[in-house]
């Protein structure tokens, strides 16, 4: 974050400040009027605005108010002339970061600007923290591999070493990445996540490294990439095996040099980032196939972590269920809900292709679809029972007749839709393209219910 906007109607001040600040490594844009400045601020991500309080087209305090209303607003430092100090003081009470008096002292300008940038960075970090709080939880599990993983996290977290986490989808790789960050020396800084598979190839470079002077007409002129946002903290690169070879080459360089060139920029940006990467692919196999760079693999894989699938640590299921029942019980106003031993036994029979994520979703669904049950019994887990009975299993196994196969698929699909719609049959019917009454009839035939 080093973009400064200078707003002053005196051309001389604009030019001299621009050249000094550019030399200090800031990216500088200038504007002569409040109108022009507001337009620029709505378009790009500035760290700090140096705002002359006296502008020809608008009152300085009013301009300050408008800037502060822009989402992700920059810090504002007021520049005041001789007769406007009182207004500048008032501006700081209204949320300006500080003020500078004309004629500007170079030292003071640089110090105030540096501090204002830092304040803006901290505001960004705090917003990231707030987002993180919503998703953070403990790494639960008493199985031998989970205990070992927790120990490994404790040991490796403070080392700053790069970590590569392997494991099937839904096993908890991101959770482990976050736990690692929470126990590291960077815990007071940001944790930024980027899912490399979710971003189209054309955008991934600008997502990672940001851009200056967007090529998209009407688009924001500047964007900070994930590397830059993670400065000082941890960058979690999820599904790292899905990056193209071209992007891999750029990431490799950024890791080696701890600096990179945003798209369209003329100066590199230096960062201090710890990278934790995760993948559900066999990267060694991807290397053999020529899809993943070996040098990047070794750079990322300083400390390898392996998270086993849930089917290989079924002893963790009761504890996980307890945690999810607590979480969703509190959310849906049913704090005392529990699960019978028999139901837990049924869950242990299942092979959990979606791992812990699937278990968590199932617990939530069962709670929603059985609003009166204070104790979840085996009969409340129909889908699993169908899946695990070889005759009815939806995936792969054999069905006696086509009708049976179709019903199993339909049942599964309807349950999924009902789950997405939190048990609301009308909305599920809309989503399925059926009349509500038709869906009810189908549910009855298939033995699907949303009530006790
Ligand atoms: N050991 C665990 N204890 C508690 N919750 C867990 C555990 N493992 C996973 N979860 C929960 O399961 C869900 C999926 O976990 P997470 O997103 O970390 O998996 P992932 O391996 O990163 O998945 P993907 O590869 O699909 O991104 C999350 O809601 C997470 O909180």
UniProtKB/TrEMBL annotation:
The keyword Membrane does not apply. The keyword ATP-binding applies. One of its GO terms (molecular function) is ATP binding. Residues 3-117 form the Response regulatory domain. Signal peptide: none annotated. Pfam families: AAA_lid_14 (PF25601), HTH_8 (PF02954), Response_reg (PF00072), Sigma54_activat (PF00158). Keywords: ATP-binding, DNA-binding, Nucleotide-binding, Phosphoprotein, Transcription, Transcription regulation, Two-component regulatory system. The modification 4-aspartylphosphate is found at residue 52. Residues 139-368 form the Sigma-54 factor interaction domain. GO terms for biological process: phosphorelay signal transduction system; regulation of DNA-templated transcription. This is Two component, sigma54 specific, transcriptional regulator, Fis family.
